[in-house]
Amino acid sequence: MPPPDNEYAPPFNLAFEQIDGNIDVAIEKFDEVVDNVRRWAWMLGVGGMWWISRNLDDVRSGLDTIIGKVNYALDHQFPVLSLITVSFSWVNDVKTPVSELSFRTTEPANENLYEWTGAAATAYRAKAGTQKNAVDETVVKSEFISGWLFGIAKENVAYAVELAKIVTDLAGKLTQAAIDTATVIDIPWAIDTLAKSAGSLVTAGLNNLLTIGERLIDAMGDVRDLATQVGDHSKLPGGLWPEAVRG
Amino acid sequence: MPPELNVVLSALRDEARKWQGLSDSMAPTKNTVTGLHLGANAFFIGEANVLVHSGAYDGFQAFMTTILGGAVTEFEQLGTALNKIADIYDEADEQVAIDLNSVYSA
């Protein structure tokens, strides 16, 4: 059984709320760190400022990379949300109602239909059987496509959750650095801590995002799997619904 | 009219109605599938080339739309064929041999 609708959409949306809120915090706190450093530049000296600028440039470049990922993700949030909805729709609005028709195809509406004999009756029963097979095949194909989309939805949720974690952690480090750089005596230590921690969290986070991207491609599988579903005509001759009636 | 024929005729008419009902039930599902479109940007919030998979999904969705549209038509026509058979029996007053090619064609 596929998971209920609320297994994917709520954590996905929650992750985006965190991303949206914390990326603003991260940017604001980075600017605050820069302001703090500038305020004390006269005390930090040329050498000190050179060292600080170099470290802050690294932090900024990491932050810029993450902002790029965030903007790309935000642009795709609603389209991917529609993929989540569509994956459930294949089950709830296609597979379930179609599967409910299966039994009725071969079950006579009136038991007295069994009194009907002869070639026309035999032909009819064969046709009803073919229609049932086609109905059942449609159920199998709907199940297949929803499973395929669930796999994709799952990795998108994982990606959003990981991106939210990176952004939240980064916002935390920058918030701490903004506090620590308020006093000049702590600036060199605070910048050193920030550069190291932000650098390693961005590197690790990007690696995780890359892994999730690879998993998503794996989940999509070979594009031929989808083509095979379309091309399997054993119960749907010529890729069409079997004709009960010619023309 | 022989009583057995009456029984068969009403069973055939009920069966015809069943298929028309099945056709009516399939129609909204077909419309649903028509609406299950996904743009190429709907597959991943990260960066990856998913164009080929997005295209394959489009093909699958189009295929299912055709299939279900076919079901709506065939169910309806099967109902009509059963009514035709009932009409022939009714006319002849017995379960006569039927030219199946003429009955099972629209």
What's the helix and strand layout?
The complex is a heterodimer of chains A (247) and B (106).
Chain A: H1 9-39, H2 41-106, H3 119-180, H4 187-220, H5 223-231
Helix pairs in contact in A: 1-2, 1-3, 2-3, 2-4, 3-4
Chain B: H1 3-34, H2 51-92, H3 100-103
Mean pLDDT of chain A: 93
Oligomer: heterodimer
Give the amount of beta strand of chain B, in percent. Answer: under 5%
Name the shape of chain B in a single word: rod-shaped
Explain this structure.
The complex is a heterodimer of chains A (247) and B (106). Chain A is mainly alpha-helical. Chain A has helices at residues 9-39, 41-106, 119-180, 187-220, 223-231. Chain A is 82% helix and 0% strand. Chain B has one domain. Chain B starts with a helix and ends with a helix. The model of chain B has no long low-confidence stretch (mean pLDDT 93).
What's this, in brief?
The complex is a heterodimer of chains A (247) and B (106). Chain A has 247 residues and is mainly α. Chain A has helices at residues 9-39, 41-106, 119-180, 187-220, 223-231.
Task: List key phrases describing it.
heterodimer, A: 247 residues, mainly alpha, rod-shaped, B: mainly alpha
